[in-house]
Design a protein that fits this description.
Largest interface: A-B, 22 and 23 residues
CATH topology of the largest domain in chain B: Beta-lactamase
Structural class of chain A: mainly alpha
Number of strands of chain A: 0
Number of domains of chain A: 1
Largest sheet of chain B: 7 strands, mixed
Structural class of chain B: alpha+beta
Helix content of chain B: 25-40%
Distance between the termini of chain A: 139 Å
Helix content of chain A: over 70%
Radius of gyration of chain A: 46 Å
Oligomer: heterodimer
Shape of chain B: elongated
Strand content of chain A: under 5%
Number of helices of chain B: 19
Chain lengths: 115, 590
């Protein structure tokens, strides 16, 4: 009888440990699952943010190229206006007079004074 | 009620279903094997075309600049992006209406447009190149189906035809754009750059994925050139030349201005010239050759100073050496006379140049000796290329000096029977102006490189090293041709030519300028000389410290007889401009 009683007591103990371990494993699994879901969500959010930023960067790149092209066009217009042929044509209507004799002034000595 | 036997009989349906599923699975595996293993390359390429972009990156062609007085760069040749309008006729529903609307904006024939747009199986039809922004906007506002725009890069030359021969143009070799003639041709490899490549992933909409895999080899834009040309001088020279060719009814003309100490070309003009952007409209393609370096001609009396240099430097004559002119000299069956058939009697060497006496030149050549004379002619750079960085240079021809008869040396002594190019003459006179040193003419001051530091040098001068960011051309002295003493003596004699001789019209009051005229006969195809002449004036100044050496050449002027009436006045005008432009005060009272 004592053998069976001992066995019964052993079984009761095992059952108590088993029930306690089962709860721990159950909770651990739930926590792990939550963590995996959270990491997955965070990953998706990050990827999404990067992709959106990528598209924004592409739009900005496009804008930069447009501005560069616009700047280049303006420079070409300026270059054309600065061409001597253009300047010659524009000065024709200004009634400029040709210079006459050119006098060269030679400074005498190094000292100068205000009058 | 079923018998035991009926209850124990096995059911075949699950087994049949099992077999079908297994067969189906095997078929799928076989098909996957076929797609992914046997036809891997085909589908990988197909997917790659959908999922990735492989694009060639085209480099920008290098620009050609001059440097302004402020140090700023001004482009003489640069790139301009314009639009190409093209149609996809397959997509056009109403070609009649589309052609009608487009014809108004483009200014082209409506029927011609309709014929292009009406090709139902045609996926691409270019309609017009070089569309302006205003035209492009106007057409976009019409929202026409099947009409698209694409960017195209063209070469832009802001100064138009001032310096067409220096720049050259961009032509076509097959389907490729290639630089031809001038600097565009000579520096094609440097200007064109190197293409790059881009490989990247794209999404379902065809856009690049920013975080995707990317492999890029950037394009290397072409190198830029900075010239020695002074833009203001170039413009002034070309307009004066155009005016002179018109005034004297010449067939063509050339003016070259160079710094005698360094060989820097300050301006180089030819007339007729051409506009590089409109090269296709040129009828006679011989115009593309640069006469300043390509035309070989008998220079006439402008060669007499070279003869005199040989005789002076070899110590055989002095400026005061006297000889007796008899008007003509006999060589076997030939007679050589002075150009005006005059007999000048006793003359010294200064008088020979002042009065441009042919027999005096022969005297000086004979005094030097045939071999010595030939050596000096070669030493002055005649018969050889100058090495200037422009396409289609000729070397001239002095082979008559190798022939046995004295007649050849005699005619060469006054510039007939040999051929030279205008640039060779300028370089030779520069040697007289700068104390006897023959300098190498050059037109490219700097080469500015993109992505320098990564490109290996292939030239002997720097092999094994990488190319620097900027290469500056240093003046090169080829050889000492005559002594500084001989150069000074000869310069003084050439001053006398302008002060007292035939070239008075080349002078500028207040300054000592040196120079010589030449009115050369032009040989005819069948032998002998005809009525045509080539007028040349070559000079430099101020003679004490020369800042410029200039050649003016007019081919076959009709309404003047001698060079002192045509090229000498042009030299004077430009010399006056140069002296004021460089703010050089007069050397003497006016």
């Amino acid at each position: 009888m004592s053998k069976f009683f001992h066995l019964t007591q052993e079984n009761k103990k095992k059952k108590r440990v088993s029930i306690r371990n089962g709860w721990i494993i159950y909770i651990a699994r739930r926590i792990l699952l939550c963590l995996v879901c959270m990491v997955g969500i965070v990953y998706l959010i990050q990827i999404n943010v990067i992709v959106v930023r990528g598209y924004e960067a592409k739009l900005l790149e496009r804008r930069i190229n447009e501005l560069k092209q616009s700047n280049e066009k303006a420079e070409l217009v300026l270059t054309d206006l600065r061409s001597l042929d253009n300047i010659q044509k524009r000065t024709e209507g200004l009634s400029l007079a040709a210079y006459g004799k050119v006098n060269y002034v030679e400074p005498r000595g190094n000292a100068v004074a205000v009058r | 009620m079923k018998s035991r036997h009926q209850y124990n009989k096995p059911n075949q349906r699950p087994r049949f279903l099992q077999g079908a599923i297994i067969l189906f699975a095997v078929l799928i595996v076989v098909r996957l094997g076929d797609l992914q293993i046997l036809n891997y390359k085909f589908y990988a390429a197909l997917a790659s075309g959908q999922q990735s972009i492989f694009r060639k990156l085209f480099p920008l062609r290098g620009s050609i600049f001059t440097r302004e007085g402020t140090g700023e760069l001004y482009p003489l040749a640069t790139n301009q992006e314009m639009s190409l309008i093209y149609a996809v006729p397959m997509e056009i529903d109403n070609p009649v209406q589309t052609a009608e609307k487009l014809a108004v904006v483009l200014g082209t024939d409506e029927e011609e447009l309709f014929n292009k747009l009406n090709k139902k199986n045609d996926p691409y039809e270019p309609l017009k190149h070089k569309l302006s922004d205003a035209q492009a906007e106007e057409i976009k506002a019409l929202k026409l189906k099947g009409i698209y725009f694409g960017p195209e890069t063209f070469r832009f030359y802001p100064e138009k035809n001032i310096g067409g021969h220096i720049l050259g143009f961009i032509g076509f070799k097959g389907d490729s754009k290639v630089g031809m003639y001038g600097l565009e041709g000579y520096f094609e490899d440097d200007l064109v750059g190197q293409p790059g490549y881009l490989r990247t992933e794209r999404d379902a909409f065809g856009s690049v994925i920013a975080i995707g895999e990317r492999s890029i080899t950037p394009a290397r834009d072409g190198d830029d050139l900075v010239l020695t040309i002074d833009r203001v001088l170039q413009y002034k020279t070309c307009t004066e030349l155009q005016s002179a060719v018109k005034q004297y009814e010449a067939d063509k003309g050339t003016i070259i201005i160079m710094e005698p100490d360094t060989g820097r070309i300050l301006s180089l003009c030819n007339e007729p010239d051409y506009e590089p952007a409109e090269y296709a409209s040129v009828e006679d393609i011989s115009i593309f050759n640069n006469p300043a370096i390509f035309d070989q001609y008998e220079p006439g009396s402008v060669f007499k100073p070279i003869t005199m240099a040989a005789a002076l430097d070899s110590g055989k004559v002095a400026p005061t050496t006297v000889y007796t002119d008899e008007g003509c000299l006999k060589f076997d069956k030939y007679r050589i006379c002075n150009s005006d058939f005059k007999n000048y009697g006793r003359q010294n060497m200064v008088g020979v140049l002042e009065k441009s006496i042919n027999t005096g030149a022969i005297f000086a050549a004979r005094a030097a000796g045939k071999d010595v004379f030939k050596d000096y002619v070669q030493a002055f750079g005649f018969g050889a290329l100058t090495g200037i960085e422009l396409d289609t240079e000729n070397a001239g021809n002095i082979s008559s000096l190798d022939k046995k008869g004295d007649i050849y040396m005699a005619t060469a002594s006054f510039g007939q029977g040999i051929t030279v190019t205008p640039l060779q003459l300028v370089a030779a006179y520069a040697a007289i102006a700068n104390g006897g040193k023959l300098v190498k003419p050059y037109i490219v001051e700097e080469i500015l490189r993109k992505n320098a530091g990564t490109r290996p040098c292939l030239d002997q001068t720097c092999i094994g090293q990488v190319l620097p960011e900027k290469t500056v051309t240093t003046p090169k002295i080829i050889r000492q041709v005559i002594s500084p003493r001989a150069a000074t003596l000869l310069s003084g004699m050439l001053v006398s030519v302008i002060e007292n001789g035939h070239a008075k019209r080349a002078g500028v009051p207040g300054y000592y300028l040196a120079g010589k005229t030449g009115t050369a006969e032009v040989p005819e195809a069948g032998g002998g000389y005809g009525d045509k002449t080539i007028h040349t004036f070559v000079g430099f100044g101020p003679v004490d410290e020369p800042k410029f050496v200039m050649l003016v050449k007019l081919d076959n002027p009709k309404n003047v007889r001698f060079a002192d009436s045509s090229t000498a006045p042009v030299f004077s005008k430009l010399a006056k401009f140069l002296l004021e432009y460089y703010e050089i005060p007069p050397e003497r009272g006016l």
